[in-house]
Design goal:
Elements: H1 11-31, E1 35-36, E2 47-55, H2 65-79, E3 85-87, E4 91-94, H3 95-99, E5 110-115, E6 118-123, H4 128-139, E7 144-147, E8 153-154, E9 179-181, E10 188-194, E11 198-205, E12 211-225, E13 228-241, E14 248-261, E15 269-270
Parallel strand pairs: 1-4, 8-14, 12-15
Antiparallel strand pairs: 2-11, 3-10, 4-9, 5-6, 7-9, 10-11, 12-13, 13-14
């Protein structure tokens, strides 16, 4: 088993480690010379690139449903500084910079967060669902993801999963950020809203794009290696001609996932250490 970082042996060491890393990020934010997207508009850009919705309350094992109810409050607070955000050519989107540190003073409640290979309660827990949705929208665009993190384990069996496993993004203020850069000549906009059961969002653009993206999963399987379960897959995307032939213009591997599973899957394959990435 890998050795634990020294910061995990005592709360004070963990606190110091976190704030040293946060300080490093603050220095980067204000000294790296990049232009971070900051303008918001209630007027929507002309054309929709991609729309998606994410169910707010899900069956997550034996977890406390109250934490998911609190999560809805957290998501509504976190969505406010992102809703209507304009990302112009050359600008960078930073989730943590826009949302800020989740605190009780801002109205955040205790929700579920995944940390140190377990699901536990934490202030602001659940806002990763917002990062997941934004990442899915961005995958269907020519925007360039420049920082993304994901969980190293899969804590709950699928319950009505719509998106491929491992297609999301996790955030931990502020050094575990989700960022993308607009290297295109187009201006984009993120819009967010809530229905009775879902967090909903869309990515819009100021110009008609003559191409579109299709994101799909390949080589999905569960493995049992040395009595430990793992989940593995690949996520790919096609860039396709949009209006005429639908021709595939390019194919790209987005990411390979290999994560420990915290439950016993219904079906799995026996694996060996050679199957690890």
């Amino acid at each position: 088993m890998p050795r634990k970082p020294i910061s995990q042996y005592h709360p004070a060491l963990y606190f110091i480690a976190v704030w040293l890393r946060r300080l490093h990020r603050y220095v980067a934010w204000y000294g790296d010379g990049r232009r971070y997207a900051a303008a918001q508009s209630t007027e929507k850009l002309a054309y929709q690139v991609k729309k998606h919705q994410s169910v707010l309350i899900k069956k997550l094992g034996d977890s406390d449903k109250h934490l998911q109810i609190n999560k809805i409050t957290n998501l509504k607070i976190a969505a406010q500084p992102i809703n209507g955000l304009i990302i112009r050519p050359g600008e960078v989107f930073s989730f943590c910079r826009r949302v800020g540190l989740p605190t009780r003073r801002k109205g955040y409640l205790t929700g579920m967060e995944l940390s140190f290979d377990q699901a536990r309660a934490g202030v602001g827990g659940g806002i990763c669902q917002l990062a997941n949705l934004i990442h899915w929208l961005v995958l269907h665009s020519p925007l360039t993801v420049t920082e993304r993190h994901h969980h190293s384990f899969d804590p709950f069996p699928d319950d009505g999963r719509v998106l491929p496993f491992g297609s999301g993004a996790t955030v931990f203020y502020n050094y575990g950020d989700y960022q993308f850069t607009n290297h295109t000549p187009y201006t984009f906009q993120i819009n967010l809203w809530f229905s009775d059961k879902c967090l909903e969002g869309e990515l819009r653009v100021d110009t008609v794009l003559d191409f579109a993206y299709h994101v799909f999963e390949q080589k999905h399987r569960f493995l049992k290696i040395n009595n430990v379960f793992y989940r593995q897959n690949e996520i790919w995307r096609h860039k396709k001609e949009r209006f005429k032939s639908g021709e595939i213009l390019a194919t790209e591997l987005v990411t390979r996932n290999f994560a420990r599973v915290s439950y016993v899957p219904e079906t799995y394959e026996e694996g060996t250490d050679a199957d690890r990435p």
